[in-house]
Amino acid sequence: MNKISSKTLQDLEFNTVLIQLGARCTTELGKEQVVTLEPLSSKSDILNILGQTSEYLASYSNDNRIPNHNFDTINPELKLLKIENTTLEVGGFKKIGALCNTVATHIKFFVKFKEYYPLLFNVSDAIILNPDIPRHIDSVIDKFGEIKDNASSNLQNIRSQMVAVKGKINQSFASALNTYHASELLDEIRESVVDNRRVLAVKSMYRKKVKGAVMGTSKTGSIVYIEPEATLRYSRELSNLEFEEREEIQKILNDLTNQIRPYAEDLHAYQDFLVHMDITASKAKYALEMDALLPEISENRELYLRDAYHPLLFLSNKYKKEKTYPQTITLHPKNRIIVISGPNAGGKSITLKTIGLLQVMLQSGLLIPVHERSKVCLFDNVLTDIGDNQSIENHLSTYSYRLKNMNYFLRKCNDKTLFLIDEFGTGSDPELGGALAETFLEVFYDRGAYGVITTHYANLKLLANELPHVTNANMLFDGKSLEPTYQLVVGQAGSSFTFEVAQKNGIPYSLINKAKKKIERGKVRFDATIAKLQKERSRMEKTGSRLQEEESKARTEAQKLEDLNLKIKTKLENYQELYDHNQRMIYLGNKVNTVAQKYFQDKKKRPLVSELLRIVETENSKRKKQSAKEVKAQKAKKAKVEQEVIKKVEVIREKKKVEKKKAAIIEKNKPRPVFKVGDRVRLMDGKAIGSIDSLEKNKAIVNYGMFTTNVGVEQLELVERKNPKK
């Protein structure tokens, strides 16, 4: 891949993205280096860096957070290590020790979780960790940054003597203090400290009665500070020992520096590794803030940006709590170039910058704010002509500059180029400039380049309709309010709404009418036709949206009516059954009543029993017929229900298959949990839940209460973590 020019990066405001990235770095070296990032020239490097950033982003949403990578720069220490006979300070050794420990922590972490972060593991695996560096430092310097007593036998001996001398100083001073205090030669404060030495606070009138060295007086002169004569000898001895201690410490630091000096290259590599982690973390934080992700990288020449946001505009509006409108752009071999037209302030330039900035960010190893189903490809070069770019230094007009830029495009443009041109052909006579722009566009088209341009020229709109792999597009405008909707509509050219916008902004209609007469009637009619088509399209979209809403409401109402009708029908059937049952009971009651009346009159039991038996047998025969009908009806109903259930089951199975595929994809991308003894788990294709009794390598013994089983860890899914309190 060719190196993308600095002009392209400037046109697309890539430096602003880098400044925002730098603000999210935690180390000074990270802040310095991130602003120098440029698009990478190797495809493998791009994919590798993008993968690392994506892995770091994933760490924010799982339990295995990457350790803190903060450190203090050791560049001054590395410079000193390159110079012979130099000595590092204690603070420098502390920074080096902390750096080594941070790198060691990262290496251990990525070894443990290399399945989750394979690309970041590869970066850490290239670092050769040298345990001798922190070991040498820890043997000399303690955690408080002090030289240890046992750093050398000589230092230990000196410090032992110092402790003994300090004891003698305190003892002799205490003796003198008690003696002179008893003689009432001391002031009320009795003692003080001067030049880090204990002194007696002697009343000035008795100064000659106290033997010792005068160390100073109070502001008023009423007190003289004297170090007792008995203490002086020990103080001189202590000063000599302190000098020897400093000399010994310097010697120890010299030796330690010489021990560390051979590892200067390793320390440089450690620092570079942590700077890389800092920059990767800043990219992940940036992606998290704007919901960015890694889209599919296509091997084919295909660019599909779905719901793409301009990163700078998105973050700016996010902080202002304003809405940002996404764009959807598709470029492929059958549709290589898009010509966007329409009025100014409709979002054409933002759409152009969105495509370019996202492409440059992606090729610099940054995730981009697009829909997860987006698809991107890599270009060898990205060429831009956005903005006025008038050059005062070179005495170039806008048009001269643009012609110079087009000459550069002609030299660089090929089938692996993405070109983005704003207001193509402007800056000169409309007809002549338009004709030249048309010629340039034909050359870019013939070379197989991909690109997006914005224009007001009618001839470019017509050319886009004539060329098979070029498409017209426009930024949708509300024809009534003349307000932009910031929606890109592909397939139709847009009107500039020149006169309509002028009228909205208060230009008198008489002047607008006069202007219309000054231009060709055909051009006015052409623009008016496009404007009319655009208004019709906008109106049709609104109508279509309204009809969809009404259709949805009608379906909902129809479903409600159908459910209500079914309930009413069921109730009527129940009422009919109840009525028939009551009628039958009345009929039987009348018959029994007649037999009872007859028995009441003649008192004959035999005819009574005979008649009652006949009534019962008649009713039972009816029941048999009824039960046969019911059984038949129930069978038919059951068969119908079974068919309905089978259909529903098939639908549910299809849904489950789709959900299972989605779950499999999610599960595939989802980091595997790290199991611990006591965790409640189940097999991926099972329902029984058990607890882990033990773990060994990639095997786990799962206890189900009645029995235990030995299964692979990859077959288990986590149900509940072990409660740490238990």
TrEMBL record:
Stored InterPro entries: DNA_mismatch_repair_MutS_C (IPR000432), DNA_mismatch_repair_MutS_core (IPR007696), DNA_mismatch_repair_MutS_sf (IPR036187), MutS (IPR045076), MutS2 (IPR005747), P-loop_NTPase (IPR027417)
Entry keyword set: ATP-binding, DNA-binding, Nucleotide-binding
Location of the region described as Disordered in the Swiss-Prot/TrEMBL record: 537-556
Keyword Transferase found: no
Molecular functions per Gene Ontology: ATP binding; ATP hydrolysis activity; ATP-dependent DNA damage sensor activity; endonuclease activity; mismatched DNA binding
DNA mismatch repair proteins mutS family domain mapped to chain residues: 335-520
Domain DNA mismatch repair protein MutS core: 12-316
Taxonomy, superkingdom: Bacteria
UniProt-listed GO biological process terms: mismatch repair; negative regulation of DNA recombination
Organism lineage string: Bacteria, Pseudomonadati, Bacteroidota, Flavobacteriia, Flavobacteriales
Matching NCBIfam families: mutS2 (TIGR01069)
PANTHER family: OS10G0509000 PROTEIN, OS10G0509000 PROTEIN-RELATED
Protein's recorded name: DNA mismatch repair protein MutS
